[in-house]
């Protein structure tokens, strides 16, 4: 007994209890329709139609069967529509590290809302370390992460370059655009993002590759706090350039280069290797990848 049997049975009922007309309506052969009816009656051990003078007359059991079958098919159609339309509504759980969440994600989601206004997007902005844990525990569908991912079960796709920039105060030890040695740089007082953030991981990795390590004077989750400390001449910081455009343009801070340090990094789209990505999730991922090609360049607000 299958949905096919119910569909054929209902077609017979809806076409004047005629096997011939039901076969025509379903684009089936008459013997195939007759066989399906016979299988249905055999399954329940009772006739659904009486056969008199080459005509079919629905029985009391057949009437009951028709009511149930119509209800079941209606529910089935509702289920089909609901599941197939789920991507047009539903919930999408997206994570973003702090730089991406504050400077990029709002523009991405504004554009995506135009494409999929019915999708309810839940956002979590946190450190890369926390986002990796949430991807592992299936609390997020995917995340936009800065720098390096350390969890082997995650698939990562690089999609945008975002260099780190070293900064000091305007009246600080280095002139704007000055290129300094690693020896001079490592002797500075460092104001850094907290451990576990993508920015910190990338800087620590670049410092290690250059042959030194850093014990920061300040650690903070707030880029604004670090920049304010730099403005006051309390040390140097290394932060994402897009987060610094405002204070750099206003002349509040100066950026400089460090010889022999590679501080280029990429933004990553990360998701669990066993995660099923819905159509909406895949569409948002593609929008993020192609955003700067398909949409006007966003105006990064920086911090001021």
Automatic annotation (TrEMBL):
Q: Which positions carry the signal peptide feature in this UniProt record? A: none
Q: Which UniProt keywords apply?
A: DNA-binding, Transcription, Transcription regulation
Domain HTH lysR-type intervals: 1-59
From the UniProt record, which GO molecular function terms apply?
A: DNA-binding transcription factor activity; transcription cis-regulatory region binding
Task: Supply the InterPro entries for this chain.
Answer: LysR_HTH_N, LysR_subst-bd, WH-like_DNA-bd_sf, WH_DNA-bd_sf
Question: Could you name the domain of life of the organism this protein comes from?
Answer: Bacteria
* UniProt similarity note: Belongs to the LysR transcriptional regulatory family.
- Which protein are we looking at? Transcriptional regulator, LysR family
């Amino acid at each position: 007994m299958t949905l096919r049997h119910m569909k054929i049975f209902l077609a017979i009922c809806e076409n004047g209890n005629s096997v011939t007309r039901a076969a025509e309506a379903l684009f089936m052969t008459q013997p195939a329709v007759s066989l399906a009816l016979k299988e249905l009656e055999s399954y329940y051990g009772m006739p659904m139609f009486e056969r008199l003078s080459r005509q079919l007359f629905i029985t009391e059991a057949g009437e009951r069967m028709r009511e149930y079958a119509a209800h079941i098919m209606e529910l089935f159609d509702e289920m089909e529509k609901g599941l197939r339309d789920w991507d047009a509504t539903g919930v999408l759980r997206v994570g973003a590290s702090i730089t991406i969440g504050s400077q990029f994600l709002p523009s991405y989601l504004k554009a995506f809302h135009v494409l999929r206004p019915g999708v309810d997007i839940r956002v979590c902005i946190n450190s890369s370390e926390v986002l990796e844990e949430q991807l592992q525990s299936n609390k997020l569908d995917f995340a936009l992460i800065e720098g390096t991912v350390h969890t082997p079960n995650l698939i990562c796709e690089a999609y945008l370059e975002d260099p780190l920039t070293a900064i000091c105060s305007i009246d600080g030890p280095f002139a704007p655009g000055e290129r300094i040695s690693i020896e001079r740089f490592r002797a500075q007082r460092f104001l850094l993002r907290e451990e576990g953030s993508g920015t910190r991981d990338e800087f620590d990795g670049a410092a290690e590759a250059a042959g030194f390590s850093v014990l920061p004077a300040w650690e903070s989750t707030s880029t604004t706090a670090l920049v304010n400390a730099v403005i006051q001449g309390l040390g140097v910081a290394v932060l994402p350039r897009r987060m610094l455009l405002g204070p750099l343009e206003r002349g509040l801070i100066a950026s400089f280069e460090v010889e022999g340090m590679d501080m280029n990094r990429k933004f990553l789209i990360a998701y669990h290797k066993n995660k099923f990505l819905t159509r909406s999730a895949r569409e948002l991922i593609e929008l993020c990848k192609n955003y700067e090609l398909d949409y006007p360049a966003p105006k990064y607000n920086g911090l001021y």
